[in-house]
Amino acid sequence: MKPGMKIIIMLITAVCFWGGLLYFASCSDSPEKRAVEIAERALKATVDNPESIQIKGISKADSVFGKEYVNQHEKAALSMHLMQYGHKLMEETDYFQNLDKDDAAMSDQVTRQLDAMTTLRALIAYGEMEEAKAGKEKVAKPFNGWKVKIDFEAKTPQGKPYHSEYWFILDKEAEIVVKSFEIPLL
Prior knowledge:
Distance between the termini: 74 Å
Number of helices: 4
Strand content: 15-25%
Structural class: alpha+beta
Order of helices and strands: HHEEHHEEE
Oligomer: single chain
Radius of gyration: 24 Å
Number of strands: 5
């Protein structure tokens, strides 16, 4: 064997080894990617008409610390969305004076709005209780999982289109949905 041939074989072996190692490291399923995939599957399992789903946007998986799943900015944005949606709903029903109880689509809209408001109240109340317990001191909360938001449009089983954002809170390994809630959008 020629003297330079050993060096070439060693270089090729090193490049193949490190290239393979890098390839396997980049292909490993990270919790962030898995969180998004699990959230998409959970969305399809959650809505009444999964065939009609058109996903408009998916957030990157974001870290959740403690049990406060929604930060102050998100609470404010959710409050604004729900206020606008509620105002639109009130106008459509003439402030519930012209509410057709047999209209399944309107009933779905009202149910979505009320469920979202209940969830938002619970999230805000939990945050306030935690602040009251902790007092003025800031306590570092442990990493508790991931949250993913999916903006989508779908149709009710009756064929009426709607636009919503579903929030999924997942465990640390991004394998199980711990909590989920829907926010209706205009």
